[in-house]
Amino acid sequence: MINKLRKVDIKYYFVEKILKILGIISINLNLFLYMGKLKIGKNYNIWGSIRFLIDGDGKIIIGKNFHAVSSRKRSYLTIFSPCHLTSIHGGKIIIGNNVGLNGNTIAARDLIEIGDETMIAPNVIISDHDGHSLNPLKRWTDKGISEKILIGKRCWIGANSIILKGVKIGNNTIIGAGSVVTNECEKNSIYAGNPAKKIRNI
Fold first, then answer.
1. Which of 54, 134, 136, 197 is deepest in the core (most CB within 10 A)?
2. Which residues make beta-bridge pairs with 105?
3. In terms of Cα–Cα distance, which of 67, 65, 60 is closest to 36?
């Protein structure tokens, strides 16, 4: 134990342990508060407290071996900590097995589905709705359009990217850092840019 501590930053070592305990407390508290609207599989590892919000009849379902960094003190790159998972007006968030998040915001008014073994880098925002109408006269009254987002298996979403409504990302695809994804992305490909465009096949 002493030899192990000598090889690491002692403050970081203990902060990491404390954050993991906070993660367990956060999950169990939210499971109690949301009574079936929130589900999470076994063997999760969460550092810090995830901010869950389920408004209405929505659901957030998370698979096994979930990994989430939800604190600046645990992450090297996160700006927008902690993780925010929000279900608005009946929206659903479905996260597969072995998925990793790092200081991300995911907001569903329809459906956001993330496939198994997908990694989402720091500061990524995923939203399946506009939030407001495009018509300037209706922005205070009209909540805009919602369209489901489907992210495949074994994808990697690069840091500071934004995934917008109606997007489908195929299996094994990489989204480059800082991209804004507005259209479908083929499987086994690399996309990058604003708006994101195909760079090459993998």
1. 54
2. 84, 125
3. 60
d(CA 46, CA 198): 33
Cis amide bond preceding 122, omega within 30: no
Looking at residue 158, its pLDDT comes to: 97
Using the CB atoms, write b or e for 92-128: b if 16+ within 10 Å: bbbbbbbbbbbbbbbbbbbbbbbbbbbbbbbbbbbbb
Residue 89 among the catalytic residues = no
Mean pLDDT within 47-54: 93
pTM of the entire structure? 0.89
Please give the mean pLDDT across all residues of the chain.
Answer: 90
Query: Of the residues 67, 89, 129, 132, which is catalytic?
Result: 132
pLDDT band at 21 (very low <50, low <70, confident <90, very high): confident
With residues binned 3-state (H G I as helix, E B as strand, rest as coil), the percentages for the chain, rounded to 5, are 15, 35, 50
CA dist 157 and 67 (Å) reads 15
Neighbouring-strand partners of residue 100: 67, 119
Q: Do 92 and 58 touch, CB atoms closer than 8 A?
A: yes
